[in-house]
Structure to design on (230 residues):
């Protein structure tokens, strides 16, 4: 079946550096993408989302880039802080409606070194 | 706003018993609730989709008789793990998409199930 995957299972960065987490998706019909942060023992926390009619969206310290040509999604975190240490998941949905399933990628563990 | 409250957060049960997990939407009507399972160091795997007033839709490979889902009201969906076995030990999480929300799906805090 189709799935969303990540290139790197673990990413280690120095505090203050920028982080880039990548994700490849395979369902070309997906039109809504979300990045989540998950801390140990907790549910996923929304970071930022993007729809397929956009290629970039910025939030506070985070930017999501979408390249539909190569079906690639990335999350950029500026000035990474120790509190950013967590597992990050990209997820995709078709249509973004309430009944549309959200499928998760494999996850990347971000480790921020002080 | 747009909170999904999930209980219990942790539960330990004996093999062969059943465990019920509840997810309540506190400030919106959840017509659809998604149930996920997550094993350690792995991603969230969608188990089933529950719709208020109708039967749940299960993903391939998920036993519907083992994982009973009930969505009797617009604010409550439950997942019952029947005849639990140690291999059912996992982190179970529910999720819903609040109407008009522009911050994606909202998730419960998860339930850590340990079957001994």
């Amino acid at each position: 079946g189709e799935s969303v995957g990540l290139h790197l299972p673990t990413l280690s960065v120095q505090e203050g550096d920028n982080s880039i987490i990548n994700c490849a998706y395979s369902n070309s019909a997906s039109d809504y993408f979300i990045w989540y942060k998950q801390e140990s023992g907790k549910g996923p926390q929304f970071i930022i989302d993007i729809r397929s009619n956009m290629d970039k969206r910025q939030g506070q310290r985070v930017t999501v880039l979408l390249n539909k040509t190569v079906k690639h999604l990335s999350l950029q975190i500026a000035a990474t802080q120790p509190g950013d240490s967590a597992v990050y998941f990209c997820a995709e949905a078709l249509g973004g409606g309430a009944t549309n399933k959200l499928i998760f990628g494999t996850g990347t563990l971000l480790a921020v070194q002080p | 706003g747009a909170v999904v409250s999930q209980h219990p957060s942790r539960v330990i049960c004996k093999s062969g018993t059943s465990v019920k997990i509840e997810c309540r939407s506190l400030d919106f009507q959840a017509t659809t609730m998604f149930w996920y399972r997550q094993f350690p160091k792995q991603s969230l795997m969608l188990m089933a989709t529950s719709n208020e007033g109708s039967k749940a839709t299960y993903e391939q490979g998920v036993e519907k008789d083992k994982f009973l889902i009930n969505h009797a009201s617009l604010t409550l969906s439950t997942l019952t793990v029947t005849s639990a076995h140690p291999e059912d030990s996992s982190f179970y999480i529910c999720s819903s998409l609040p109407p008009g929300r522009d911050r994606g799906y909202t998730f419960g805090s998860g339930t850590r199930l340990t079957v001994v």
